[in-house]
Amino acid sequence: MNVLIADDHPVLRRAFADIIRSLLSPAEPAFFRAADRTRLFDLLRREEVDLLLLDLCMPGMTGLPELVAIRNLAAAVPVVIISCIEDPGIVKQAINCGAAGYIPKTLSADDFSAALKSILEGGVYVPTGEARCAQKCGKAGDIDPLTPRQLAVLGKLATGKSNKEIARELAISDLTVKVHITTIFRKLGVETRAQAIVAFQRELVAHQ
């Protein structure tokens, strides 16, 4: 698994890497590190990245528009925002822009680890009090907001494929599949695979 940590503070980059190592043990992830926008986008273009931890306030970054640019450049890469900003509006916009989670840097090490663990297991994490906001970001049964990669994952789900089968057929990691499925559920406003498949089939019928 290849993890890109984009933060301009070396101490935090090391701390995040240590947390990820402990969560993925005994597997040993490979890490890429970026301290500014130029390095971040260079790595996204050159390397196969399975997970991105992103600080939107790095040098050269302009905030949420950069998240949109990242989603356009590397739609298959799950992006977890790590930020000192906890404004509810920013959190909601980040989730709307495709972030797989939003973890405040103000969390304790244990809470940060628990938040990241929930994302690695396919969940979505937002600061306490913002969960309701994040859950309302998608419209039930609406396929349009999904990226081509998310549509591909949803199509595989509709044929009964397991996460491992989807990962193998799309040449992505199991973790990436989990994060895509979580994002699909959020965007469609559903809670189960069956509900997501119904939405997918309804969309196919509507376009026949």
Summarize the structure.
By secondary structure, the chain is of the alpha/beta class. It contains ten helices and five strands.
Lay out the secondary structure:
Elements: E1 2-6, H1 10-24, E2 30-34, H2 37-46, E3 51-54, H3 64-73, E4 79-83, H4 88-96, E5 101-104, H5 109-120, H6 131-135, H7 148-158, H8 163-170, H9 174-188, H10 193-206
Parallel strand pairs: 1-2, 1-3, 3-4, 4-5
Helix pairs in contact: 7-9, 7-10, 8-9
Largest sheet: 5 strands, parallel
Strands side by side in the biggest sheet: 2-1-3-4-5
Helix and strand run? EHEHEHEHEHHHHHH
Poorly predicted regions? 131-144
Overall average pLDDT: 82
Number of strands: 5
Proportion of residues in extended strands: 5-15%
Which bin fits the share of residues in helices? 40-55%
Q: Can you tell me the number of structural domains?
A: 2
Structural class: alpha/beta
Name of the CATH superfamily of the largest domain: Response regulator
The CATH architecture name of the largest domain reads: 3-Layer(aba) Sandwich
CA-based gyration radius: 16 Å
In the CATH scheme, the class of the largest domain would be Alpha Beta
CATH fold call of the largest domain:
Rossmann fold
Shape: globular
**Helical segment count:** 10
Q: Measure the end-to-end span.
A: 39 Å
